[in-house]
Amino acid sequence: MALKSFIEVHPDSHFPIQNLPYGVFKPQPNSSPRPGVAIGDYVLDLSEIASAGLFDGPLLNNSDCFLQVRHSSLSTLSLLFRRRLSFRSQVEETTEPTLRDNAALRQKSLVPMNKVELLLPVAIGDYTDFFSSIHHTRNCGIMFRGPQNPVGENWYRLPIAYHGRASSVVISGTDIVRPRGQGHPIDGTPYFGPSLKVDFELEMASIVGPGNELGKSVDINNAADHIFGLVMMNDWSARDIQFWETVPLGPFLGKSFGTTISPWVVTLEALEPFACDAPKQDPPPLPYLTEKVSKNYDVSLEVHVKPAEHKDSSLVARSNLKHLYWTLTQQLAHHTINGCNLRPGDLLGTGTISGPDPDSLGCLLELTWNGEKELSWNGATRKYLEDGDEVILSGYCKGDGYTIGFGTCSGKVVPSPQ
Amino acid sequence: MALKSFIEVHPDSHFPIQNLPYGVFKPQPNSSPRPGVAIGDYVLDLSEIASAGLFDGPLLNNSDCFLQVRHSSLSTLSLLFRRRLSFRSQVEETTEPTLRDNAALRQKSLVPMNKVELLLPVAIGDYTDFFSSIHHTRNCGIMFRGPQNPVGENWYRLPIAYHGRASSVVISGTDIVRPRGQGHPIDGTPYFGPSLKVDFELEMASIVGPGNELGKSVDINNAADHIFGLVMMNDWSARDIQFWETVPLGPFLGKSFGTTISPWVVTLEALEPFACDAPKQDPPPLPYLTEKVSKNYDVSLEVHVKPAEHKDSSLVARSNLKHLYWTLTQQLAHHTINGCNLRPGDLLGTGTISGPDPDSLGCLLELTWNGEKELSWNGATRKYLEDGDEVILSGYCKGDGYTIGFGTCSGKVVPSPQ
Ligand SMILES: [Ca+2]
Ligand SMILES: [Ca+2]
Ligand SMILES: [Mg+2]
Ligand SMILES: [Mg+2]
Ligand code: NI
Fold it and tell me: Where does substrate bind (chains A, B) (predicted)?
């Protein structure tokens, strides 16, 4: 039987009591940022709950983790998680009855979500982006390495990744300025100007909870304990800039102009009912990547685009987190095998999540085959994104009578500066 | 005539009054970190100077920038720099006479450097590593692309770079744990274990002062205003891990196990007397990379290694910052051309600074030609670094009767965990 809260939550809402994702918000334009939990159409202000003394368990009593927003507060939340006193159940058990019976507190601490400003949910120390969908990798390989040998020998041996740019990670709703930069030379001189190939990438990302010390790797079978939860992510990409700069050190300015994440961190615990088997890996991974239980999550993913000339958005692609070849835990364990330290709030993108079907491809590079085919969305034709186009990613899991969702991750492309 | 301070400074000291580099330190193991300035064998405690009310100019009056260590304090320092009221001359003019005549204040604020613990001088938001020495690039290219076409077509058009890992940037003196990881397969299965090819990379790095807003590029002719100063940097590299993982997204775990920087940020202003012409660039750079005055700095660089079995270190290579093809300002302007935002404290490595001569190569990869040749340092033979080996980088400029130096950037390789 589905859990129910005294707060009315529509069955299609992304934020029933089974979810309770973590975020950071400002109730008023001039208030200070504070942590909150989404429930139905409301945000529960955790700073008010903490001030009211409701967090009286051994871990949260007198902790200021809900009063301030910084690296260490996430670290405390993560501690809860690590000790299997989950964030979700703590909030639920300590606040439900008191809130229900205390109208004044309810008034202060439950803020309508449409009234608040949502901010980045964590201070991101480092952002890493993986490349873990075999479908995305194979498609890129066919385009750029040729059909004979599209996937590199190393790809099946380790979760390939690169360091991304943390400073330009922005919250859903932030406009994305079309980057300027160089492209491959046409008549001897490189192209320079606004990128002609601005793309989206449909991704999800782990938010690191407890970190690890420099020099000490995380064991694969403990890796889940280091993941606080997941967000949706759009790794905006300028393909012309990216392809010209990328040899030999990888993507740089083709990516660093902006990366959008969704505001609510959905805990792994809330996703647990939607866990599914990870794909069989052949060749079998090395021991440090071999997990006792290897799982993915069945999260339906959608890309909608609202072309500049339309009032409505069109569905552009559907995919699923379960298509990942390398699991989230393999990604995290691999990241630390060399002793690299993760810190609370670090962001680990999955890489573009493409599926096996033509309509399950997670970026325009694949959908238009690098501009060879034109797409038509309700009559708007595109090879890459135009100024004014808005991209909206969403993700959700359908439970029995409820939905665990991620809300949306959206952004609009605006023109380059002159 | 050389400037002189009332504090005795030996002519070989790296820290005469002409330098006054910025750092962060703890006077006692249990004190809180605070900003300081190196002068001779002393550290001037800026928090004491500020508490004494000595910073009474319009910019620093009542500013708490010397009382706390965080992003915003560097931002204030940077403001000084941007307004051409330099950090160096502010400290010098406001403190010299008062300090000289106030024994109690001198006692409190001048701490012997050998008594303090030096910490990272800035909170590093993002770390980027460039690839700007043509000698290093050509040598790597000959090894891995072949002698026909060692340097890619894009290299002469833009300062190639990749995002590095900020979390594992450590202060000089921190041990570096030998990373574990995968290497290229030998009999079908990848090597796994402690890296067999741990290397150093001789680099310098810019520390960003004032940042720029996301979406707004920094003009090349204003780029110097965004550089607070320079440090020495050792970009430790595990060549076996790096080469196996690097296609197609660039270096990742082969780098992210540790990067060492020197504690003192030397301002561009202190280096100005050692400015020299940058190399002529052919083809000429695109307009956004063309600067009115294009300069390098004549900074002598040395690599010493103390092999595990020796008590003394040996000189292993000598190079010079002036060998850079792409200037520090071109690096910074390029980094922002796509709208990427830099933040105060960001670290921009130059890439390995190799010169044209066989003894001016900045890493073992080049010096031993990826292990083909063995080096002998006073009888200790090496292809790559062994556990217990210590690498000491240093840099200095020789002025008329004084030296502007960077101190040292050192680290010892210690064994992998079992
Ligand atoms: Ca990506
Ligand atoms: Ca390097
Ligand atoms: Mg991006
Ligand atoms: Mg490094
Ligand atoms: Ni930070």
Answer: 131, 145, 242, 352
